């Protein structure tokens, strides 16, 4: 990401270099005038007050221009980095987000972005201060090359020590940042597991003990980093004062030099004290920002939403087009203590028709949820093929393919905005009517297409998810154990009214369920066993079979 930002903002950065040099030269010209006045006395000085005020006027304009440029660059980069991150997280496959894990993504979105944004704020200021120091060195070279030789030797030594100290902080900075991912995960558990931890003090002690152990390690490393920074700053100050002492007390004994030149050196070095301190502190910020950029890159987020997506025809009942899976395989693989643990779904083939309700049953961990994610393209199959209306689904048309689906999983996320099929806000009156049908009108209302309350019971939240799905109006509906949290009355309404209504609208409906009582609501029932799919006979088929055989007898 850092390289692409350099590239995008190259003109700002390139422009910063001459601006910084001009600013450095203007600063030095002011110092030269002051040193001339102090060294030669007011009667013998070469430059008058007019030159001085012109020089500080130029310094003001260049300084202001540079700060305005920096503010513009910094604000733009900050906006750009955050927008890129949102686009990249949205474009990243579910598989990759699951592989990385929520704590790492959150740590990066909150911690790394803030630090990374500072990089382009600090870089121009670093440039300016380096330019000032270089101009200061050039001015000192003009005053006396032999004395500069003394100064340069001390400055070089200081620079080497400071660089070594900065590099010394890098390892600890990386380690602190790595541990922050774990801390973020623990913070989540602390909030999510508040009930369990409050009820079990042993677990709470064990848990907080582990967390504080990590925090103690971070504390130790932070202390080491801050100590190194303190060394750096003190060393920088000491070096400047040592150089001043060398010039004042030793220079005239070592090389032939006048009092005015010594005054010039002293004033320049005192002036350079602040730029040198700024450079030292900014070097540390750059190290931190580099660690943050590396961390962002490590998430392996997608670069952007893939371009050149082709559209697929939406499935409708009248077209009678089918969604089919042909010898599809999806495999999870995880390494545990050097052993590869895997779960494989398929190879399986399945045909889903508009206006049909298909029920998937099976024990825990047999692959039902995985199958739904494969059907809707959240997990692209590793082999085999998905087809819709006879058209193969591939990477290029995957986004258009996913537009066919509404999915409600047990860990669904409820959004407060009610949007229609085109992503536009829905009419409040229509939403209110639907809330009444779902028996939610007493607890939730909708204003400007925004639901006013999401803190509800799990069964009620699932009804709201159904409401959002209804307005999205997608042709294929996938419901994973939706009815599991409903009371008996609403369970019956779901199987006997809602599913038939979806069917009548020509939707392709796939329901994962353990509700044996309602298997006859489905047109087809399949059982998953260890990732293998087997068709089952439904009651309605059995009844139809029986009545047919009675009729023929
Ligand atoms: N993200 C993942 N990474 C690795 N393995 C996973 C992942 N998600 C699920 N699995 C494994 O895949 C298998 C099938 O999981 P899945 O969630 O599809 O089962 P399920 O039939 O829906 O179970 P349940 O009825 O309990 O919801 C399980 O053995 C599970 O451990």
From TrEMBL:
Residues 22-288 form the ABC transmembrane type-1 domain. Its main location: membrane. It is a multi-pass membrane protein. Keywords: ATP-binding, Membrane, Nucleotide-binding, Transmembrane, Transmembrane helix. The chain crosses the membrane at residues 12-35, 47-69, 119-141, 147-167, 228-255, 261-280. InterPro entries: AAA+_ATPase (IPR003593), ABC1_TM_dom (IPR011527), ABC1_TM_sf (IPR036640), ABC_transporter-like_ATP-bd (IPR003439), ABC_transporter-like_CS (IPR017871), Cyc_pep_transpt_SyrD/YojI (IPR005898), P-loop_NTPase (IPR027417), Type_1_exporter (IPR039421). Pfam families: ABC_tran (PF00005). This is Cyclic peptide export ABC transporter.
